[in-house]
Amino acid sequence: MRSVASKVSMLLAALYLAPSISGKAIESIPNNKLVVSAETVNPSPLETAFRQPNLTSVVPQIERTWEKQFEDYFRRSFPDREITVKDIADTLNQIAIETKTRPALLYVVPLGQQLELVLIAPGKPPIHKRVEAANRQALLAQAREFSLTVSAATLEDASSYLPPAQQLYQWIIAPVESELQKQGIDTLIFCMGAGLRSLPLGALHDGQKFLIQKYSISRIPAFKLTDTIYTNLHNSPVLAMGASEFKEQDPLPAVPVELSAIAQNIWHGRLFLNHEFTEDNLRIQRQQQPFKIVHLATHADFLPGTPRDSYIQFWDNKLTLDKIGQLRLNNPPVDLLVLSACKTAIGNEQAELGFAGLAVQAGVKSAVASLWYVSDAGTLALMTEFYHHLQTAPIKSQALQKAQIAMITRQLRIENGHLQSDNGRIALPPNLAKNQNQNLSHPYYWAAFTVVGSPW
Hints:
The protein is of the alpha/beta class. It has helices at about 5-15, 45-50, 55-75, 85-100, 135-150, 160-170, 175-185, 255-265, 280-290, 350-355, 360, 375-390, 395-410, 430-435, 445; strands at about 25-30, 35-40, 105-110, 115-120, 125-130, 185-190, 215-220, 240, 270-275, 295-300, 310-315, 320, 335-345, 365-370, 415, 420, 425, 450-455.
């Protein structure tokens, strides 16, 4: 039985999302319920395409629809390039050969009356599944409840996220799982519709395991907006920058340890802390050396509104999302941008456009970022483990997956003031070391982190 809080969150989500149900007339009925009438008014091109789905035309329509949403949000035009189902399947097949992984693309399309799933595997014809039980209202209510419960820092019931996690798994993953197993898929690329782009996908649960224990995961705004050229990062230096002190925000005391571990111990590169963490210095360092990995340990918020309302906090200013191009991360191109202490507004479609479109707007191939602010110690644990695995994993999403599994299985843990893992020990700062032992297996600590953009 759901708690009162869960019922309230579902009702609020339904009320919040009801006006956005495209092409439907909404009417109130007793008992605080909502119903979508049978009358359809001006169906969208995407709804029309799915009425008698021909996947060779449906997939390009999904791509066009979602590309337009990101163009409208960022107020920019992307290159006019059509993409076919065969283009996607062939690209996935080529990547599979180069990386020795098996990636698949899953379109998750919430419509008013049902959920539409389209799966494309390497060199294979697409597969379409319709989930009628997952109408938009029910689906997005579950998504909001899931995100709220899994991201709570303190929970009286530490497993309260499981019911929505399992329901969403049954709707989004279970219909295509037999095909994923048949094809030997190990990497899932999610292309999600509005209201789902900020789901903590790795924490979806089949009743036995988390989704991240089965597949490495990334999320993309559209396949046509994704850089699919594979690059090996094993010998690429990192530019690590960040701040531990802020004038108007909470301190991040683990940042000095995080930057030092990444740039000097685990990986190799240069680090800059606090007053050296400026936009100008970032550009100067990149002019001197074309760092392919840029790691920013600082506050970043993806907020409702326009890209001007979302920002990355530098030492001396907030860089808003609409001006992130000033960092010139596309010249020379950055292969991986890491934001280790960011958050996004749960359930807000504008905020999730900023988050899901981060890599595209920044001009980078891939980004690793968090959906909510994780504890300082939890962030340090995840990030150091991620860079350990990035040294050997064939692709970025697999490196992140391995780090998350280490937290789930408690191979990565905090004991006696140290971060302990199979890769060694790291002493925590004094104000974090006082928490002698800490269990990092709850998805609050690891499910926020995700690859945005290319998993490769």
